[in-house]
Amino acid sequence: MEKEATISGFYEMLEARGVTRRDFMKLCGAIAAAAGVSQLTIPQVAEAVESLIGNAKGNLYPVIWIEAASCTGCTESFAQVDTPDAATVVLEMISLNYSETLSAGAGFSLEEAKEQTIKECAGKYILVYEGAVLEGWEGQALRVADTPGTETLIEAAENAFAVVALGSCAVNGGWMAAYPNPSQACGVQQYLKKAGIDKPVINIPGCPANPEWLTTVLAQVILMEQVPALNDENKPALMFSQTVHDNCERRGHFENGEFVYEFGSEEEALGYCLYPVGCRGPQTKSNCGIVRWNRRRSWCVESGAPCIGCCEANPSNSGQNWVEVNTPFFKRHRDLRIGDFVFQPGTVALTLTGLVAAALVIHGFGMKISGRMDGGADFEKVRKWDEKHPDRAIGHYDVVVEKVPEDSEDQETKAEETEGGKA
Amino acid sequence: MAHLAHYREAHPIPFVITHWINLVSMIFLIVTGFSIHFPFWPNFMGVARGVHVLCGIVLLLNCIVRVILAFVVKSAPTGGTRVLVADYKTWLPQKDNRHQLGAWIKYYLFLKKDHPLSAKLGVPQKISYLAIPLLIIVMAYTGFSLWGPIMDAPALKAGVNLVGGLMSMRIIHYFLMYVFIIFMFLHVYLANVEGFAPTKLMFLWREHGGLVYDPDQHSIIGEDDEGAKH
Ligand code: HEM
Ligand code: SF4
Ligand code: SF4
């Protein structure tokens, strides 16, 4: 049968890449989970992948990958496939028509390929945008092929089926947007919104983004032709809705109160929790501890480093970029800044509290010297107000004072010669 | 030597209880809060967080109960009298006495020699006590938005986004703890600097004799040594 032939061809292809059938099924499981469909549908997912790759050589899903203000780390991370693995199969499903780093071509012909994709595949390609959008200098900072960077983004995004903002820089500016942000870096979603372009943006944060996050999202968009379920920050809900802390393997030590206070210590050797050395796990939403890194070999906390919160990225606030929010990494709190004055919150709080305490001690001496410690000073004979307004009865404490016309104030002040006469 | 008599009417028993709850949960919150911020003591984190959130809930509920009671229970507006008024009026600066603010500040700055005549709470105290329920509510809000199980509730998330993320929320929560601590310093100092009689009344409900005050006339009308016997 023709189909069987295709499938066996498919498995040959997998085998050539060192991917076992088991690995492949695992990948399909991950895709099914990410798509929010039942694990019972894994065979269907597998079939879909097989037929897509096996059948449609000419029919691959076009992807444009634009690099903006980035360090190329996300591309590197994605391209570092030294050992073949199931996720790379997804690469077989796409046709990467434009990538500054990965495309073999360059210059005019490559730009032409991009233009063609945008025109001919309008509404059918995926735009992967890596790095921050630079609004400064009228977008000229990222001028490529005679077009300002911001214009390139608008053109590519307008015609895409979906936009993937890859890495924290693309999500909200990342460290490009950190103080003082001279280039006015911001995220893709925020920029497109400002430019009035209504396109679904899938935000995949991280510095760099984990390649498995991208492959899973691509697989879902391509196979199901649907954008994965997103949370309120337009990040794939299954990946970015729980904190690193929620799924951390050192969490037991956290609850037990067993901590690493210093690197190189015995506690570190015991694998205790890294909270005191600044771990941002409790406030960073990402599934790093589950998906793990570098082909699932390890991840930050497992390797002994506290989470530095690289997935913190609120797409609508570039000021909330992960660098600004989390530095210095090994302190429990971030630094605060007033002008050029940078300080730790604890220092200010302690200083202020110390000043108040000192003031009270000094005041206490004053009270002592003025003989007020024992019951306070003698009471005044009459309150100043009563003295000024001898003719105005107060009435009961909790009954409103009678209304007096405003202008009568002056006359009464003149008339105050007598004592209050209340005693 | 010129304090007013301290009668139980100033602090009816429900308020003695809410005050105790405030004190205990506040101390637990501060101690556990410090150790959540930085785990100084080993083997304490799980307990600290449990106790912290529990005491936070207790503090918040207690605050709500106290505010409701202010409208239900009557209390004396000043020391030295057994006259009762609606309790909330003894908190809010009244027309009757708010003009004494200047006198109080001058007194505490040693610019005024004699003691201002006033209500149970001096005007500065009234203002700070009004701020405390607000502070507790803000504290609870910032605290709950750091608490994993409910941090995704839209009402909490909105605040987190507004202040720029969980780290900022944490720092605000942390700063507010110092506001509490500073308040406690001031409060303990002002309540006791002129003698411990008010504290005995507040915690042990023990009365104490002294000058008798007419809250309508605003003047001292005598002295009561009987109070000491209660
Ligand atoms: C009123 C209700 C309160 C609630 C629900 C609450 C809840 C919380 C939660 C959930 C945390 C974070 C724990 C974690 O990340 O594991 C926290 C931290 C903390 N809380 Fe509270 N809290 C409350 C009131 C207070 C009060 C009254 C104080 C002190 C006066 C306080 C002081 C602290 C401190 C210092 C921290 C550590 C913050 C840091 O990381 O620097 N909290 N609180
Ligand atoms: S290492 Fe970090 S994420 Fe893991 S339990 Fe400790 S604080 Fe949480
Ligand atoms: S554990 Fe933290 S620092 Fe490491 S990749 Fe995840 S979010 Fe980034």
Q: What distinguishing features does this structure have?
A:
heterodimer, A: about 425 residues, alpha/beta, Rossmann fold, Cytochrome-c3 Hydrogenase, Chain A, domain 2, 3 domains, two-stranded antiparallel sheet, disordered N terminus, disordered C terminus, B: two-stranded antiparallel sheet, 8 helices, elongated
Helix-strand pattern of chain A: HHHEHEHEEHEHEHEHHHHHHEEHHH
Fraction of residues in β-strands of chain B: 5-15%
User: What is the largest interface, and how many residues per chain?
Assistant: A-B, 67 and 67 residues
The CATH topology of chain B, please?
Fumarate Reductase Cytochrome B subunit
Total number of strands of chain B:
4
Q: Quick one: CATH class of the largest domain in chain A?
A: Alpha Beta
Oligomeric state of shown chains: heterodimer
Biggest pleated-sheet summary of chain A: 5 strands, parallel
Spatial extent as radius of gyration of chain A: 33 Å
* CATH superfamily (homologous) name of chain B: Transmembrane di-heme cytochromes, Chain C
Small molecules in complex: protoporphyrin IX containing FE, iron/sulfur cluster
N-to-C order of helices and strands of chain B: HHEEHHHHHHEE
Architecture blueprint of SSEs:
The complex is a heterodimer of chains A (423) and B (230).
Chain A: H1 2-16, H2 21-35, H3 42-55, E1 61-67, H4 73-79, E2 94-99, H5 107-120, E3 126-130, E4 133-134, H6 149-158, E5 162-166, H7 168-172, E6 185-186, H8 188-194, E7 201-204, H9 211-224, H10 237-240, H11 251-256, H12 266-269, H13 288-291, H14 322-326, E8 336-338, E9 341-343, H15 345-369, H16 384-388, H17 408-414
Parallel strand pairs in A: 1-2, 1-3, 3-5, 5-7
Antiparallel strand pairs in A: 4-6, 8-9
Helix pairs in contact in A: 1-3, 2-3, 2-9
Chain B: H1 13-37, H2 45-72, E1 74-75, E2 85-86, H3 87-91, H4 101-108, H5 123-144, H6 154-163, H7 166-192, H8 197-204, E3 210-214, E4 219-224
Antiparallel strand pairs in B: 1-2, 3-4
Helix pairs in contact in B: 1-2, 2-5, 5-7
